[in-house]
Amino acid sequence: MRQRHSSVTDIEIIEDFSSTARCDEGFLRVRRLRCRNRRADGSSSPMYRVDVVDRPRLDAVAVLVYRRGASGLEVLTRMNLRPAAYFRKDNRDAMTVPDPASGYLRVEEIVAGLLEPEDKGEEGLRRRAAAEVHEEAGYAVKPEAIQLLGGAFFLAPGILSEKVFPAAVDVTDLAPEEPEGDGSPLEEGTLLQWRPVQDVLAACRRGDIPDAKTEVALTRLLALHP
């Protein structure tokens, strides 16, 4: 178990400038569209509104880092600050099922990162995955060691355009370095920990790890290597 920086206990909102910010600027961009369906017989549906949330890069890679030891298969997870999940607490009246009392200051998940314009095809996926594993977990792996776990998936296709490409890498017998990170304040207090694969899968299904890409990558790896 490794922790970077001191523990963070809260995230303070310095300013909420939602009412003055444009929807087409910032890290996330919201397109507000008026649409209608075009049908094969030439008719059209009534007009309706659609909001689409885009990131600067539309694709990401998620990497399940695992190792084999005396106790069996273990996977590496990261506890990361996740403001969007944390600030759900400010809208409790909108919840149909209450969140845990502790909230979601941190979310446990696997290594992940956005694909850059130069990351083309399977070669680019493996290269980016290896870079993210080194930056976030401290393991120097070669791109050819990355296992691609099937097709990409949407996290919330009703609103998010982002697709996630799942992958995995075996770091058995590799010694980790101190992860470089990206220098963001969101990496303060990041906790890396190894856990038995079945413990992580059970935590996903209980909702203790409420991160879809972690469960998808884990179930796909186990399907390949039961």
UniProtKB/TrEMBL annotation:
Domain of life of the organism encoding this protein: Bacteria
Organism annotation: Corallococcus macrosporus DSM 14697
Nudix hydrolase domain mapped to chain residues: 56-217
A GO molecular-function annotation: hydrolase activity
Name recorded for this polypeptide: NUDIX hydrolase
This protein's UniProt keywords: Hydrolase
Keyword Lipoprotein (UniProt): no
SUPFAM superfamilies the record matches: Nudix
UniProt keyword Hydrolase, yes or no: yes
Transmembrane segments: none
